[in-house]
Write a sequence for this structure.
């Protein structure tokens, strides 16, 4: 098949590198022949195959690659050896660089940054001022947003949410429906139990346990767990199960000095 775009004579510089505006030579996806796109250093940066496209003021340079059906738009910069592929979108003022990869149906946008050897894939979302870097992995339906940071060898996956000023790092694993927020700082995997009705666990704030939308101190849970369960329609057996989960989590928190 013929080339889908060309480099125009319109140029600019980014980090001392000469970039060229691109223009579609034929229609593909939602791009029409003649449409002007964003900026690349050369044809090495954007595949001539598939529906991948760089639009608006987005810049792709260095040895970075965009291919598949990926979209890079807005004022995004993709550089270094980074790859954006599959059906992934990178937009807004996001930065993807180093050896990072964004793929699958992942979305990285706003002022988010993904770099180092980080991977963002699946249906994951990274946005706001969030950062994912080092060897971190964000996948599944997980969201990392706000000013949250995921780094080191940490993994965030499933339906997990990491937000606000939270930090997840080291070899921590955050998964399921776990929520890490506020100023939480997790270097170890938090404990998380999926009960018959709701999940319950420790999600980064010492002295506190969360279940669904309920977040209270250890003493509150020990005193009120059955009443809370009754209010949510738990059977007597489920109430006893809930108590067992709370006691197990409290014991774990005390073991690691997270009860105060």
């Amino acid at each position: 098949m013929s080339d889908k775009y060309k480099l125009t004579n319109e140029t600019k510089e980014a980090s001392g590198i000469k970039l060229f505006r691109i223009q579609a030579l034929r229609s593909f996806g939602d791009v029409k022949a003649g449409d002007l796109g964003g900026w690349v250093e050369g044809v090495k940066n954007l595949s001539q195959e598939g529906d991948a496209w760089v639009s608006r003021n987005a810049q792709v340079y260095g040895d970075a690659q965009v291919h598949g059906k990926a979209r890079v738009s807005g004022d995004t910069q993709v550089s270094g050896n980074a790859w954006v592929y599959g059906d992934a979108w990178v937009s807004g003022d996001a930065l993807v660089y180093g050896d990072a990869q964004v793929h699958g149906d992942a979305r990285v946008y706003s002022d988010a940054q993904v770099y180092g050897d980080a991977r963002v894939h699946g249906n994951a979302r990274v946005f706001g001022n969030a950062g994912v870097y080092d060897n971190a992995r964000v996948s599944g339906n997980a969201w990392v947003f706000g000013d949250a940071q995921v780094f080191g060898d940490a993994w965030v996956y499933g339906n997990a949410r990491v937000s606000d000023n939270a930090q997840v790092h080291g070899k921590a694993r955050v998964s399921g429906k776990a929520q890490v927020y506020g100023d939480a700082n997790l270097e170890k995997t938090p404990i998380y139990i999926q009960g018959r009705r709701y999940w319950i666990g420790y999600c980064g704030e010492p002295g506190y346990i969360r279940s669904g939308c309920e977040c209270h101190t250890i003493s509150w849970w020990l005193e009120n767990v059955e009443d809370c369960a009754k209010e949510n329609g738990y059977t007597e057996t489920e109430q006893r199960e809930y108590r067992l989960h709370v006691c197990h989590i409290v014991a774990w928190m005390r073991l690691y000095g997270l009860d105060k």
About this structure: The CA atoms of residues 60 and 78 lie 5 Å apart.
